[in-house]
Amino acid sequence: MMELLEVKNLSKHYKNFDLKDISFTLPKGYIMGYVGANGSGKTTTLNLITGVLKCVEGDVRIDGLSREKGEQAYKEKIGYVGDESYFPDHFKIKHIRNVIKDFYPTFSKDKFNGFIRKWNLPENKLIKDFSRGMKVMLMFASVLARDTKLLVLDEATNGLDPVMRTEILKLLQEYVMDGERSVIFSTHILSDLEQIADYIYFIHRGRTILYDAKDELIENFLLVKGESAKIPPALKKELIGLEEKTYGFEAILPSDKAELLGNAFLFEKPTIDQIVIHYIKSREEQ
Amino acid sequence: MRALHFMKIDYMLTRKQMYFMPAILVLAWVVGTGVSKGAMSLLVTCSYVAFVASIFSTAPFGYCVRKNRGFLLLLPATVKERVAGRFLYGLSFVGLLGVFCGILWGVYAMMGYELPLWTVAIGLCELAVGILIMALEFLFFYLFGEGKENWQQLSNIVRIAPGMAMFFGMTYFVGKIEEIQSTTAGGMGIDPEALSGKFMQVGVIAILAALLLTAVAAAVCMKVIENRDYA
Description:
The complex is a heterodimer.
Chain A: E1 3-13, E2 18-27, E3 31-35, H1 42-50, E4 57-62, E5 65-66, H2 71-76, E6 78-81, H3 93-103, H4 109-118, H5 132-144, E7 150-154, H6 162-176, E8 182-186, H7 190-196, E9 199-204, E10 207-213, H8 214-220, E11 221-226, H9 233-238, E12 240-245, E13 248-254, E14 266-268, H10 272-285
Parallel strand pairs in A: 3-8, 3-9, 6-7, 7-8
Antiparallel strand pairs in A: 1-2, 1-4, 4-5, 9-10, 11-13, 11-14, 12-13
Chain B: H1 2-13, H2 15-35, H3 38-56, H4 59-63, H5 66-74, H6 79-110, H7 117-145, H8 152-185, H9 196-226
């Protein structure tokens, strides 16, 4: 498989936070969900990938190109959509069109205008008067109207209504369809990832917790439920994020430890949401 | 080329202040004629224009709050091009106002006012000081305050104080020149017109020195910003 995004030993140190040894690859034509709790380092990683943050330790390559080797070409390959609009508040759509046209040779004015019409974005309003949904769609219009290789989404769908979110998920699937482009997508709405992600990277307090193909990840774990009193010590040791509930307990268990369950417990395939929540719980307890 | 595109972005960001420019330039002329007459009034007008330039040329820094900076940072260009674009904006802004002063000088000349060459030289020195103030303000904003949102009061002082000092200094200086001129008329002191050539040399050197120092300030800013996060 041809790798589009290669992240190797990426680290970043702050006074109160360390991002440590983040490594992964994302092949062409695939979507990766980058998940974790607030403050886990998702935005820091994405900012390092886009080049907004200075990368001192580690290496990031997009389509084989590092930022140091060619900053302009590197940035041209990226389309970024954040959780809030990065466009100047006092700009109108015409100003954004003007700037993008100047900086990106692959920008298609017709394509951009098509998106503006399709999503009914107001040409004569200032960006600050746009709704959140309009701002997000404008960011999408600005990146989809040019030839990018990697779409970096930082909680772009948070706070959007279900119709708009569905539209965006459809867009992302269309984006990778040609097998040449990829998406890395950070979100708290893990049900979105269930629908479209091929890979999941789970980060907590700046450290890698899980990284695998989504289907493998779901196959690799079981969601276990039952009476707390019946948990044998050998099983208790293997349970991840054991949570006491009114009806008993709920936890995650690696599938290869399934023989420890016997007949006393209920188990099923977990969702990504459940895996993440139980892992976060287990890490918080450590 | 991309530096020019960044300059264009700054003009787009600050387009609203351009609407006020004609009124401000008329005000500068009114202030000049209120303080003195002929060439001396032009010197006061030009110092007021330099004062205005020192305030307005730094306006893009106010628009680049952290939230919006991502837009500029994501554009496919180097830090050098981005910083160069900002400096080009500042220089072109001061330059445009300098052109306005030049036109005013020409209009006065056509109207038959006596405009000694040494007053033109002082006008050039004012322009040089205006460029220098702009460069120092840019240096300050890049080194200490780029995109900081809680710096409103300090940044206002930095934007206003140097230009204001220059304007009041020039108004005082014009008063002194008039005093010296009346003394010269009495047969004492030196005749500045006899030294016009030297004055012009000083004016041109002042402009060149200001441009050189601006280039140095830009290079320092580029180096500092390159090593900074959110570069």
